[in-house]
Design brief:
By secondary structure, the protein is α+β, with helices and mostly antiparallel strands. The protein folds into 2 domains: 14-109 and 153-337, Baculovirus p35 (Sandwich), CATH 2.60.250; 114-147 and 346-376, no CATH class. Helices cover 16% and strands 39% of the residues. It contains 5 helices and 20 strands. The protein has helices at residues 105-112, 176-185, 192-203, 290-297, 356-376; strands spanning 14-15, 40-52, 57-68, 87-92, 97-101, 116-128, 138-147, 155-163, 166-173, 207-213, 224-230, 235-236, 254-260, 263-268, 275-276, 281-288, 312-319, 329-334, 340-341, 343-355. The chain has an 8-stranded mixed β-sheet with strand order 5-11-3-2-13-17-16-19. The longest helix is centred in the C-terminal third of the chain and has 21 residues, at 356-376.
Length: 377
């Protein structure tokens, strides 16, 4: 598996965008680098991490978008010519396996983590006249909702392949200057912040996977990819180049799904200096039956990763502060953690209709009966 992972450096993603004509939003990548005359920034992102504690394999799938700060943005369905120079880099601790994945998994997961609905009745009295046909209880339509919550070259090409509309080169490098030279030579854009960002990963001897739009592909859209690699601790590349930082109070929406052997929690940083990941809002953390989990993540994650002898949990967060960190995000699991699901309380007003005329007659009847009793006495 390579050398043990004792520090916080794993699978960081960087975008290298070059000479994009109209700068489309593209559902891949994580940290954009801008090309000539253009500047890009991260938009929203959804990620799925599934980690097998027996094999130590992490499967990482993401759906991300980017926006141009100079020419506006377009959707992923734009033409080939709009995306010909699109690319991104993915560092990983060991040589990864890269395959296409079905991004529809995120819609399935989002449905799964919807809040549990609890219905509470609020009883109200509705005085009325001539209302005896409505003595049965009725529900009003008013509802209020609240939530709680290969050669020894400076840059070695280990493998090349085409996947999901991309050309992929899996690289081994030690010198960041040589890596930047390789990127520029192969039509990727490089800048100082990108170089600074990638240095710690190269110092750890990690692999760099370079993705570039396949101009020879007959696809009209690029697809999502799954990157699978060995790691002792599952990780998400939360760390971004400094020129991608945004105000933590006005960040993008990062939605994180983690599948593992217990309730997941996150820490940011390196070694003993790690700090709790307190920024996100926990949305869901529950054990999920194996067959249901297979149906949920099957479009994106190999089903053999969901083993019958392993009770697995699904944990999900929303983070509106990202990207604003220079630390990577690591996950651990608590097999006896407390399950959590958001609760949405729906209050339905239930009305008791009181016919005042009938109540008046009944009251008069009681008075007459009492007076008659007095007269007899």
């Amino acid at each position: 598996m390579g050398r043990p992972l004792s520090s916080c450096r794993v699978v960081s993603l960087v975008i290298a965008l070059t000479i994009l004509k109209d700068s489309p939003e593209i559902a891949q990548g994580c940290c954009p680098a801008f090309g000539k005359g253009s500047r890009f920034s991260i938009a929203d992102q959804r990620i799925l991490i599934a980690w097998d504690p027996e094999t130590k394999i992490e499967h990482f799938v993401r759906e991300a978008s980017f926006k141009s700060q100079t020419r506006g943005s377009k959707s992923e369905s734009d033409s080939h010519s709009d995306k010909e120079d699109f690319g991104f880099l993915v560092p990983s601790p060991t040589q990864p396996q890269i395959e296409e994945a079905d991004a529809a998994v995120f819609s399935e997961l989002d449905q799964k983590i919807q809040p549990k609905v609890e219905v509470k009745n609020r009883w109200l009295v509705n005085p009325s006249v001539l209302a005896w046909p409505f003595l049965l209880l009725g529900a009003s339509s008013k509802i209020s909702v609240t939530s709680r919550a290969v050669d020894q070259a400076p840059v070695r090409v280990l493998e090349t392949k085409k996947v999901a509309g991309y050309e992929v080169a899996i690289l081994k490098a030690e010198d960041p200057n040589e890596l930047m030279h390789w990127l520029e030579k192969n039509d990727y854009q490089a800048r100082d912040d990108l170089k600074e960002w990638v240095v710690p990963y190269l110092q750890k001897g990690w692999i760099i996977s370079a993705f570039k739009y396949d101009s020879q592909s007959n696809r009209t859209q690029v697809g999502s990819v799954r990157i699978s690699f060995l790691t002792d601790t599952p990780v998400f590349p939360y760390r971004v180049p400094k020129d991608q930082f945004v105000d933590p109070d006005r960040g993008n929406r990062l939605q994180v799904f983690v599948v593992g052997p217990g309730k997941a929690s996150g820490t940011l940083g390196d070694g003993d200096a790690r700090e709790p990941w307190n920024r996100p809002k926990l949305r869901f953390s529950m054990p999920v039956a194996n067959e249901e989990l297979k149906s949920l993540v099957g479009p994106a994650i190999p089903t053999e990763a969901i083993k019958a002898n392993q009770p697995l949990w699904l944990t999900a967060w929303d983070d509106s502060t990202w990207p604003s960190s220079d630390k990577d995000l690591w996950f651990s699991f608590d097999a006896i953690g407390t399950p959590y699901q958001q609760v949405r309380t729906v209050t339905r007003d239930r009305w008791v209709h009181l016919p005042l005329d009938l109540m008046g007659i009944a009251f008069l009847g009681v008075l007459i009966a009492r007076r008659r009793r007095r007269n007899r006495d």
